[in-house]
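Extended Data, record Pyridoxamine 5'-phosphate oxidase family protein
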Amino acid sequence: MSSDDPTSSADQQLAFELLRRADYGRVVASMRALPFLAVARHIVVGGQILLRMHKGYGYHQACVGSVVAYGADNLDGASARDGQWTVQCVGLCEAVEPTNAELELFGPSPHFADGELFDPVYLRIEPQVTTVHTLHTGHDRRLQRVRVR
């Protein structure tokens, strides 16, 4: 994203505002040359997305040091009046130790993941490409698209 392009900054802010409305999303990466999709809790801090995942799955090992995609949406619970949206972010993923303030933003961890005690691991994505799609009902039934680099 170019720092001299005010539209890009505003569009990325829209993406972050929408992400703040959803607690969970999906991270996409490659593991042993195959794509996988995993659920993660996220928060937005500054211009970065912090993720909390269950360490027991081992997915974090494939994410750290790789370019990943992260997406969240409101497609399951949005009313037609409010419209639906999806946000996708692509960027380098790194392991991180969250601050106490960031841990508070995440809220309580689940107690169990697939019957095992939940063991949190934290990751950070600094988005390089962000895309927002919105769907609105009405006579024109348009799809609005915003792409941020």
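Summary. The two ends are 4 Å apart (CA to CA).
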